[in-house]
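We modelled the chain as a single entity of 285 amino acids. Its sequence is:
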Amino acid sequence: MRTVLNRSILIILPLLATILMLGCSSGGYRVEEGNYKDTTYKSTGAKLKGAYKIRSAPSFTLQVDIAANLGMAELSSNYANNFDASQFTDGENFGVRTGFGMMVIGKIPFHRKSNLRLNLSTGFNRFQSDLLTSESPFGKVSYNVLSLGAGIENSFSPELKIKPFLAGEVQANFISGRASIIDQTTGETREVRITNSFRIGYMVYSGLEFMLNNQYGVNFGLKVTNANQVLKKSLNDPNPDEISLRDKKIEGDKIEFAGFKNFTYTSIFVGFNYYFGIKNILYKF
């Protein structure tokens, strides 16, 4: 447990330190020169020639994304990219590779420049062994992952239309699943339920926001998630067909489905942004 925790800290701390360092040196205000309507007297329609417009950064950003997921390491089945009952039963992998999901992130700036932000997120991801492939002769397996996260983001240019960002989060994950295993001798199907299991992991993501106007924008990017970095377990549950997630290697007597496994995947995401608190201020010189 201590070794796994130390590895997790070694992964997360350098990333957060990088975000904090970049966040202390970036940010500012967007100044544009041009002719703008004089809003002092609405009826005149006059323009302020040589005026400057300053657009502030958002005071709060709500980001909603959908994602396509591809499993890595033990979250990548090895039998023709599909479910292999023997590997799954022996605890070699999770028996699944592809999935989809959604994520909602609230971004709260720490200071006036707004480039360094507190991110609070929630997400749901679904993985199925038969999602993009034909049905396996050995059966199928699926997982649901519900996540709650908190972390730090650096938005490199929060006041501009194009806003690149880099973020890292610590996540609390609830992982459950279901497997149907077909006996190759008898043809019978065994149903195994994986009960809701709590794990702590992390998520690293980066991308671009593009403002359409002061209220709406779009975004896209890439993220890497390890949903079970800490608190791995392989319990010998009393009911062999109703088990908790078994992702820890067990010394001694072999437990069915047990083995060291990381629930790691990469995602391509795209979505919308909703901006709050952006203001335009005109100055005439």
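As a brief sanity check on the tokenised model: Residues 2-284 form a domain with the Porin fold (CATH 2.40.160.20). The CA atoms of residues 197 and 245 lie 6 Å apart.
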